[in-house]
Amino acid sequence: MTTINRPVRRETAIETRDAGKRRPIVLTIYPGYLEIGLKGTRRRMTVAYEALYHLACKQEAARLRLEKLEAKKARKRA
Question: Does some domain include residue 3?
Answer without folding.
Answer: no
